[in-house]
Amino acid sequence: MIELDSLQQSGFFSPLDLHFGRFMAKISKTPSQELVLAAALVSRGTREGHICFDLSSQESFEAPGTEENEFFPEPGKWGKKLRQSGVVGKPGEHRPLILDSRGRLYLFRYWEYQEELARGIKSRIADEKDVSQSRVLQEGLKKIFGAGNDREVNWQKVAAFASARRRFCVITGGPGTGKTTTVAKILALLAQQGRGQGLRAALVSPTGKGAARLEEAMKKAKEDLACEKSVKALIPEQASTIHRLLGPERNSPYFRFNADHPLPVDMVVVDEASMVDLALMSKLVQALPPPARLILLGDKDQLSSVEAGAVLGDICDTGQPHPFSKTFSMDIEKAMGYKIQGAESAPRMSDSIVLLTRSYRFGEDSGIASASRWVNEGDAARALDLLQQARHRDLQWRALPPAKSLPRALKDRGLEELHYVFQERDPEEIFQYLDRFRILCALREGPFGVRSVNLMVENLFREQKLIRGDGKWYRGRPVLITQNDYNLRLYNGDMGIALPHRGAGGALRVFFPAPEGGLRALHPVRLPEHETVYALTVHKSQGSEFDRILLILPDRDSPVLTKELLYTGITRAREKVEVWGHESVFREAVSRRTTRVSGLRDALWEDT
Fold it and tell me: For 244, which of 10, 240, 280, 507 could close a Cys bridge (C-beta 3.0–4.6 Å)?
């Protein structure tokens, strides 16, 4: 094996990774370089979004300047040495590190998160009811979804049937496929089944902005429901963040609601589930009372969570198609008349996942829909052709200018779409423009990253006299919260704008949407960690939608550039996508798929 300190100098390992590895060796019965390496790799892996480190498959852990055989010990001997260390245990043991039967090494807490989540999901898919002959359900489906055409499958209706049959359901689909509308109909259906009893349902999203969007979408969907007012009255409208629902304990990683003190709910709906990391999803599932339903909404093809895990991807078996079981397909035919081919030996999980394919937002001639589809399918040539040929008014491609010319290119393009923050209007009016336009960057650092682009935009606006003075705070500064502050009820991903506040004599205050509606104003010095947000990383843009976006790619390839990142960026736009990039970089990104090492997929799909 090579010298580990050299890998810290190259940036492969952080000081914390090696410190953890050496600490494990220090408390071990049999200290070894193999243990230091394994523990450091697990630490590094969690920073990179992995749940564990696979001793026998190291593709995601390639060290710079090394040959694989030189860097990694032989898996069998490595595992044996780790088990002899005293700090590496088997599943079910309480040791700092856990090595499972397949050679996957976990930090104990991530092993526990994975096991608790898998247990909570499997218990819900094991308990299913034959509701296909329920006259009340059949009548409810017809009333809420309409009679329809038995030959053309209404997948929203199938999702509602699946949700009534089981206590766990995933409704996945691209933007505009009606996931929120489907949930509103499911809630109406379940409220009808309850025969007037209150439905204790919680609607949650990973971010405050996402919760606000979910709330707005639910209100609109309720208005369009074909059911009695008494049923609509039972359907909740208010949404919150997952953190707010669970009740964070001050200065603690724990929540008020947990396995010992479960949430007082019958059902939880999680929107934008692709953004939820393993730890948070596990804590949510543990806090559910055993009879409670869990419905996840999300796009399985989007980027995974910022923190460790690819929970929605693992639950959906990384997008692999699975037919329903033959039993479930027959039940669907009995209840709704749809003939869907089923499989004799389908895993239990397959009956809990419904894919919505029809887009109600984009027409058949939509460039955004077509480009995102080709990117998702890994066809860079067709995606580039759509972007470059100017056949669609909602797509535009521009060759990336050199780094030194980027400020001039932004100036020549004009960024009038961002000028709304400087208008002499009430904060409420200005906030209505917040989602009109945004610059998205693939990277955070570097000449084409968010930090540089935000600075360029600020300098341009100062040059144009829109920003007055050289101070950090100025009228119209848009900010993004990057750290949770439970006392202020501000959460990572919340957006605000600095504006004069009449109640403070015209002094600057930062306005944020209030959980109870309207806006609230906070003094700038009270804010937790934050940053200027004319430009966002694609990762941070998850859960948001904008009328128009400008997506700036870097001038060279990076492991961060994947088809999931491009797909997520393109699908943030409702009306138009403008991409600045190099063809070669775009092609490399489309050919690369995000991979996160985990045992959750196996626990759900192979053990059911």
Answer: 240
- Residue 460: φ, ψ to 5°: -65, -45
The token pair at 145 is 């979804």
What's the CATH architecture for 133-361? 3-Layer(aba) Sandwich (3.40)
Query: 586: helix, coil or strand?
Result: helix
Domains of the chain: which residue ranges? 4-108, 133-361, 367-591
Stated pTM of the model: 0.89
| CATH for the stretch 4-108 | 1.10.10.1020
Nearby residues of 247 by Cβ (< 8 Å), 6 or more positions away: 255, 256, 257
Q: Which residues pair with 578 in a beta bridge?
A: 396, 550
Residues 465-513: pLDDT tens digits? 999 878 899 999 999 998 888 788 888 788 899 999 988 888 999 999 8
Distance CA 24, CA 296 (A): 38
Strand-pair partners of 573: 546
Torsion, Cα 360 364 365 366, to 10 degrees, reads: 40
Long-range contacts of 98-104, Cβ-Cβ distance < 8 Å, separation of 24 or more: 99/55, 100/599, 102/54, 102/599, 102/602, 103/54, 103/55, 103/56, 103/75, 103/79, 104/52, 104/53, 104/54, 104/55, 104/597, 104/599
221-237 tens-digit pLDDT: 888 887 888 888 888 88
- Flag whether pLDDT at 69 surpasses 70: no
CA pair distance 442, 585, nearest whole angstrom: 11
* Structure token digits, residue 29: 């019965």
Classified as helix, coil or strand, 54 is: strand
Three-state SS for 290? Answer: coil
Q: What is the C-alpha separation between 2 and 183, in angstroms, rounded?
A: 54
**Residue with tokens 């004599």, as numbered in its chain:** 505
Q: What is the largest CA-CA distance in the chain?
A: 71
Q: Residues with Cβ < 8 Å from 16, sequence gap 6 or more?
A: 43
Please tell me if the domain spanning 133-361 has the same topology as the one spanning 367-591. Answer: yes
Kindly give the residue spans of alpha helices, DSSP state H, lying in 319-449.
Answer: 326-336, 367-376, 380-388, 406-413, 427-431
Specify the CATH number of the domain 367-591. Answer: 3.40.50.300
| Beta pairing class for 573-581 and 495-500 | unpaired
Q: What is the pLDDT of residues 274-324, one digit of tens each?
A: 999 999 999 999 999 999 999 999 999 999 888 989 999 999 987 688 899
> Which segments of 467-582 does DSSP mark as H helices, in order?
538-541, 563-570
Using CB atoms within 10 Å of the CB of residue 531, give its burial: 0 to 12 exposed, 13 to 18 middle, 19+ buried: middle
Residue type for 302, please? Q
Please give the angle made by the CA atoms of 546, 547 and 551, to the nearest 5 degrees: 65
Residue found by looking up tokens 């953004």 in the block: 275
| Neighbouring C-beta atoms of residue 136, cutoff 10 Å | 12
508: which strand partners?
500
